[in-house]
Amino acid sequence: MKLPTYQLFSAILLAFMFITGVNAELSDSDKSAAKDIAAKLPGIEVENILPSSIPGLYQVIAAPQVLYISRDAKLLFYGDIINRETGKNLTTPIRDKARLTVINETDESSMIVFTPKKETKHTITVFTDIDCGYCKKLHSEMSSYTDLGIKVRYLAYPRAGLNSPSYKKAVNVWCAKDRNKAITVAKLNQNVTSDKCDDPVKKHMLLGKKLGVNGTPNLILDDGRMIPGYVPAPKLLDILNKK
């Protein structure tokens, strides 16, 4: 029986045990292939195209997405590659790295940052909503995070959308002269007013959508892993230390 193309392609993928990571040096053939494939992917912002361990199959990094594609760009696979012997997801660390690339391209000056008084051991980036209950809980425990050496960087993500009350609160916070004080006041359900400014709230929201954020708080760890929801400081430190 002849398998449909997509089933055959999936079967080939599962038959091999892993996909390789980044190759520092590409052969002329692979460089040519990467150029040809990129030209056949209109509308996709391709950051890198690398050969995999499967002959004729390439790994496409379109941060934060990871795709797999055939040399002629006719067969496209989107999903996770699992090592069937170990059960390890081999796509996840690649996707995490791609996600971290996107975060690192974001100017920290557009964030609200709470820095440990002593040594910074880890940095997390948090998509937050002024009116989100668990966002308020996380913020109320800020000293617990910073005391453990965790630097917390906020990006705005008002879940109710543009021009909602939450959005307007975020704009007022990000336009305040003292953002750190303003966000603390706002998360205590107190009113914050400020002059208009070139605020980054809309850009933060678009960034969140690009990364697949669909709730708050949403934590991006310093290795690119994404954790949805509130995590107590001690537990978060354990997670951060287990890379």
Task: Describe, in short, the structure shown.
The chain is of the alpha+beta class and 243 residues long. It contains nine helices and nine strands. Helices cover 36% and strands 17% of the residues.
Q: What features would you describe in this structure?
A:
The chain has 243 residues and is of the alpha+beta class. It folds into 2 domains: 5-103, no CATH class; 107-241, Glutaredoxin. The chain has 9 helices and 9 strands. The chain has helices at 5-15, 28-39, 92-104, 133-140, 142-147, 165-174, 179-186, 201-211, 233-241, and strands spanning 48-51, 57-62, 65-70, 76-78, 112-114, 122-128, 150-156, 218-220, 226-228. The strands form 2 sheets. A 5-stranded mixed β-sheet has the order 5-7-6-8-9, sandwiched between helices. Strand 2 (57-62) and strand 3 form a beta hairpin. Helix 6 (165-174) packs antiparallel against helix 7 (179-186). The N and C termini lie far apart (44 Å).
Structural descriptors:
9 strands, 243 residues, alpha+beta, DiS-bond_isomerase_DsbC/G_N, Glutaredoxin, Thioredoxin-like_sf, 9 helices, 2 domains, five-stranded mixed sheet, disordered N terminus, globular
